[in-house]
């Protein structure tokens, strides 16, 4: 079992761009990077996702996480590598997928909901855990499960989460978030995306005292 550790980012915020089209990718990614995001995922159920990931990878500075969400197979992992991605997010725990990504040096964040799934993901070498849908578990539900998890594996809240929830999750020890519909929607203009991204970053900086 090989584990690639979650990198030290200024802000542990992952932008989830479900539905992004390749021709939109450069403008959207630039807006997010300028706002202060250092991790971006394009779910594979988006139109031509690997083209968008490739475009994002070319734009992103070194140290930025660019990758795919909804990764289900090792073949998807291979294609993600070819596109230049270094972040793998999945909705489930599939040790073969996590292991293939780790072999490529990718950061991995599989989706979990129960203690059994969370421990299985940690055992498989996950870099971080994506509790999804976080809005169902809530901060207290995640806190209860965190009590039995290895401390070296960061925990993220994804699904129904926005900057309005940062303080509540901070209170239970969560500082990593995936932001989807609160940040981006298909066809949304870059100006609105930039405004939403900057608002999320400003709130994160205030709540987590990022200097």
Compose a concise summary of this entry.
By secondary structure, the chain is α/β, with parallel strands linked by helices. The chain has helices at residues 25-35, 49-59, 74-82, 95-103, 115-123, 134-146, 166-170, 190-208, and strands at residues 13-16, 39-43, 65-69, 87-90, 107-112, 129-131, 155-158, 176-179.
Instruction: Calculate Rg over CA atoms.
Output: 16 Å
* Strand segment count: 8
**Run of helices and strands:** EHEHEHEHEHEHEHEH
Largest beta sheet: what is the strand line-up?
1-2-3-4-5-6-7-8
How would you characterize the largest beta sheet?
Answer: 8 strands, parallel, barrel
* Low confidence ranges: none
Strand-pairing-aware structural class: alpha/beta
Oligomeric composition of the shown chains: single chain
| Overall mean confidence score, pLDDT | 97
Strand content: 15-25%
Ends distance: 36 Å
């Amino acid at each position: 079992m090989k584990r690639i550790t979650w990198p030290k980012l200024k802000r542990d915020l992952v932008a989830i761009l479900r539905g992004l089209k390749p021709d939109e990718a450069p403008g959207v990614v630039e807006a997010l990077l300028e706002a202060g995001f250092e991790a971006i995922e394009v779910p594979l159920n988006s139109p031509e996702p690997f083209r968008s990931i490739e475009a994002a990878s070319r734009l992103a500075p070194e140290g930025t996480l660019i990758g795919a969400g909804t990764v289900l197979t090792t073949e998807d992992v291979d294609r993600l590598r070819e596109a230049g991605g270094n972040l793998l997010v999945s909705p489930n725990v599939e040790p073969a997928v996590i292991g293939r990504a780790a072999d490529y040096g990718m950061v991995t964040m599989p989706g979990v909901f129960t203690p059994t799934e969370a421990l299985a993901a940690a055992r498989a070498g996950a870099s971080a855990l994506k509790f999804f849908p976080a809005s169902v578990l809530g901060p207290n539900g995640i806190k209860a499960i965190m009590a039995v998890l290895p401390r070296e594996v960061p925990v993220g809240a994804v699904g129904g989460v926005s900057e309005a929830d940062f303080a509540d999750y901070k209170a239970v020890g969560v500082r990593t978030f995936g932001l989807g519909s609160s940040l981006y929607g298909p066809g949304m203009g870059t100006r609105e995306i930039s405004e939403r991204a900057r608002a999320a970053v400003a709130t994160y900086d205030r709540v987590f005292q990022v200097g």
